[in-house]
Write a structure and sequence with these properties.
The protein is an alpha+beta fold. It contains 6 helices and 15 strands. A hairpin with a 7-residue loop joins strand 6 and strand 7. The longest helix has 9 residues, at about 15-25. The site of uracil has 8 residues, from helix 5.
């Protein structure tokens, strides 16, 4: 929410006082003085007035997981193991998944407690490309690339997908780059040609690529330089 809103929600300040506090540069968000009333604050931001803490904030955490097949991209599931079961960290309830994968899809999964970071990563406007390695049941025809690149109409959502790039690697294998993350998007795109996806593996999301040293089921924290890329 906006910083002026956060401050005027506190019982001790009215709107006029809030404006003044900002103009007088008495408010800090995550250690930086903020005077713009529109500046965004998050539930994890540390917010201070002078030397008094108004909101403690929590350390932001970001992890990269190599999702194995046979686990659910959810924080809880009554019947199956979830990706969160693979993460051994305190305060797991604070974490959420930035960009889900299907039960049998493998590859790069990002898990964080940083809501605005994950929004930047997943919102369609950001147009970050997600790259998938795909293996299919039937041969991949020469017409696929142009069809994917034109965008495909998804009747259920009543939308046309953004242009996607297909790089055919072999008769039944390809690398596909898409900018959205619609429900079962890759399978539905190949499904248009009645071609079943047998294996799907996410290699990268925007500038973040799955660390080749991570085996399925393993994870590691992101480095500061990786977090800043998003
Ligand atoms: N598209 C799919 O069909 N499944 C996934 O898991 C990811 C993208």
């Amino acid at each position: 929410m906006r910083v002026d809103r956060f401050l005027s929600n506190l019982p001790r300040f009215n709107r006029k006082q809030v404006r003044l506090l900002l103009v007088e540069k008495r408010i800090r968000v995550d250690g930086k003085i903020v005077s713009d009333p529109h500046a965004e604050v998050r539930e994890f931001s540390r917010i201070e007035i002078d030397d008094e803490i108004l909101q403690v904030g929590k350390p932001l955490r970001h992890f990269m997981l190599h999702k194995p097949a046979g686990c659910v991209s959810a924080t809880r599931d009554p019947g199956h193991p979830t990706v969160l079961d693979l993460i051994h960290e305190p305060d797991k309830d604070d974490l959420h998944i930035a960009g889900r994968l299907d039960f049998n899809t493998t590859g790069l999964m990002l898990i964080t407690n940083d809501g605005s970071w994950s929004r930047r990563l997943t919102q369609p406007q950001t147009k970050l490309s997600k790259v998938y390695y795909v293996e299919t049941e039937q041969e991949i025809g020469p017409q696929y690339a142009a069809t994917f690149n034109q965008g495909m109409y998804f009747a259920f959502e009543d939308l046309t997908t953004q242009p996607a790039e297909l790089d055919v690697l072999g008769p039944n294998t390809a690398r596909l780059s898409i900018v959205e993350g619609r429900y079962h998007q890759v399978k539905r795109m190949f499904g248009h040609f009645d071609n079943k996806v047998l294996r799907l593996h996410r290699e990268s999301m925007g500038p973040l690529t799955l660390d080749p040293s991570l085996k399925p089921g393993e994870y590691r924290p992101l480095r500061a330089d990786e977090i800043e890329l998003i």
